[in-house]
């Protein structure tokens, strides 16, 4: 990963840009690798923008189950997530679970 070779230390905003670029290019493996590097290698705590980039990518690639699983694993309270469009997606997913169970 070139960012490490260049000796550059990314910040939250840099990581949003990298994840957004991966999202636009549909590079799921690279996006997930950068996400893990951000958390473990640089110890940057993911914020809603980082998660949203990945969720956008999953949805754009038609990986709705992956998107919903990822949303459920996020460390954000639902109230914090309500201002984000993905909150509605999570609510629809939960509704789907209730309908399927009946």
Give structural notes.
The structure is a single chain. It is built from seven helices and no strands. The protein has about 100 residues and is an all-alpha fold. The chain has one domain (about 1-100). Helix 2 (about 10-25) runs parallel beside helix 4 (about 50-60) and helix 4 (about 50-60) packs antiparallel against helix 5 (about 65-75). It is globular, with a radius of gyration of 15 Å. The model has no long low-confidence stretch (mean pLDDT about 80). Keywords: Repeat. This is Pentatricopeptide repeat-containing protein. InterPro entries: PPR_At4g14850-like_plant, PPR_rpt, TPR-like_helical_dom_sf. It holds the Pfam family PPR_3.
- The average pLDDT score comes to 78
Q: What can be said about the biggest beta sheet?
A: none
String of helices and strands: HHHHHHH
Distance between the termini: 48 Å
Radius of gyration: 15 Å
Ranges where pLDDT stays below 50 over 5 or more residues in a row are: none
Structural class: mainly alpha
Number of helices: 7
Strand content: under 5%
What is the domain total for the residues? 1
Number of strands: 0
Backbone shape: globular
Helix content: over 70%
- The quaternary state of the protein chains shown equals single chain
